[in-house]
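Tutorial, part two.
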Amino acid sequence: MNIIVSGSLAYDRIMNFPGHFSDHILPEKIHVLNVCFQVDGVKEKFGGTAGNIAYALTLMGEKPVISAAIGYDYHRYFEWLSQNGIGTEGIKIIEDELTAAPISRPTRPTTRSPGSTRRHEVFLLPGFDKLDPKGTLIIVSPGNLGDMVNYPRICKERGIDYIFDPGQSLPMWDAKDLLRSIEGCRILIVNDYELDLILNKRD
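Running the prediction step on this input gives:
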């Protein structure tokens, strides 16, 4: 089966704060919050939704193809993909953007520089129109919004099964586009909070 993973590629930067944020934040002063937290260090990982999903599928013996955008600092990521037997033929290099770089802290919202995923042009996989619809599965995960809107539409037109995982992209969505993408998907992947966001948009 052809498995195409549409989503993001990113250099994830993960920080560890050895304490509790609540010990240093004054609720009555939240409107003028001005505080700096000292962290133990920063670890960088090869991440992004498409990268993570493709890596997991590869560990299970599949041969997924990534359809995503990456910045001009792509070299280390491509080396890592090659070392893990994951192809790069479906990845679009954006020459004037850095690769997305989320900064994560435990129990706190993620801070994210969108980098190459900010583009709204569509990065459909080369040769997509030649794939056998019955032997193809598309996984649509958070990344380029243009792809997240268009892959479901094209899948439905061509009779291709797709899994839809809007995840942290939900605030960017127009309600009509979101509902159209959900309708007809083989599987919808959301957590409790994301489901509530979808229901609020529907209302």
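The radius of gyration is 18 Å. In part three we will examine how such features are distributed along the chain.
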